[in-house]
Amino acid sequence: MSTYDTFTEDLKRIAALGSISGLLEWDEQVNLPPESADYRARQSSAMSELVHREATRSQVGEWLAELKEDTSLDLDQQLVVSEAGKEYDRLTKIPADFVSRKAELTSLAFHAWGKARADNDFASYAPYLERNLELAKEEASYLGRADDPYDYWIDRFDPGMDATSIQRIFKGLKDELVPLVRQILDSSIKANTDCMKDFPVDRQETFLREVTERLGFNYRRGRIDRSLHPFCSGNAFDTRMTTRFFKDNPLDSLFSSIHETGHGLYEQGLPHEHIGTALGEAAGMAVHESQSRLWENQVARSPEFWKFWEPVYRETFDQQLSGVSSHDFYLAVNSVALNPIRVDSDEVTYNLHILLRFELEKALFDGSLAVSDLPEEWNRLSEQIVGLRPRNDSEGVLQDVHWSGAAFGYFPSYCLGNLLAAQLWYALLEQVPSVPEEMAKGNFSPVLDWLRTNVHQHGRRRFALELSKAVTGQDLSHVSLIRYLRERYLPLYSS
Length: 495
Ligand SMILES: [Zn+2]
Prior knowledge:
The chain is mainly alpha-helical.
């Protein structure tokens, strides 16, 4: 075997080990008995240590040194080597004691956050958040990024991006999104979601299964279970999605499950033979989020989607929907209203929440904002950007889990994913004009096939910026998202 083959076999073996950690986390959120959490923490920590030790063996460094000099490698192989090299560099430059210290401190911070949110008590959480911010800066400094720690974190989630490029994109978005939100909210037409009450959970589950299967999710290599917060984990060989059900809010579980299905379809579409190397891994979080959002919004909120599914939905929930017209039902599916909570927001107002978090993260990292001043600044900017002031810190600064895990720089990916989804959508419609017609017949494979060809099969060959340029011919920007929102929502909300 060549050194390259030996090396990639080893990468795949380490990825298989890492996936066992993922399975433990999935199990923790789906199955774990309440008093087994401490032992699970020990199991997870033992696995992480094992994976870290395997991934940082000196042998790996020797293979990398040899392969970096190997001029016979083709472009794909060079990508595998350079991406693995970056990760090896990162893992070996960060001291092991920092890794375990960070794991312990963020675990404490996570619990402190949960309690602070329940008690509406930011002050009790502030010291943990301060420490998490220090941890994030410290990690960046090990990688030689002490001068631009926020950019280091953005790049971790979306390679090639930084605060300056995001700032430019977000500026364009904000200028057009804010007046559009106003226009829709000022309309005398309002969606009425009161009709979506008392939907039996078992029937929601049956409908959901039918939808996700028809969208293309492979249940022979994946599952959907229940957890407090929906997520998708695993890889193409074994994809685990979760959802949650509310009797009085069936659209929440439906759309969040279709969202997770989008993540799942991406994972299932990555080339199986390359899982564990850069050719078989997702191209950053913005691309991942573009996949979930495209299915959740562009596809599943479209009139064509509901042309096919509405009769099935009505048959499943005949009593609940008996007095509701098709128009009112479709309006409920596309309801727009300001909400202080990001995850409960509709697709029109959602990105305002990201613009807010991006401003705050920048200020936290450049030192112009102290953690102690964060709640007030959150509320002030929320009023200015989102258009409403949270009633308290629990529904304001304490609402998101991310910072409690020291995950700074992650929020922008959600918005970038929304922009990319809209851009991909128009490219798809242009290249495969029969898509709407096929969706109305219940055939979603033209959408999936196109995503497989243009996004999934490429692994990490193209990150968000290159992907948008290569597939849509355009730089990543707000233009398509604004066009999409106008085309979908203005007709609904114009009297
Ligand atoms: Zn997502």
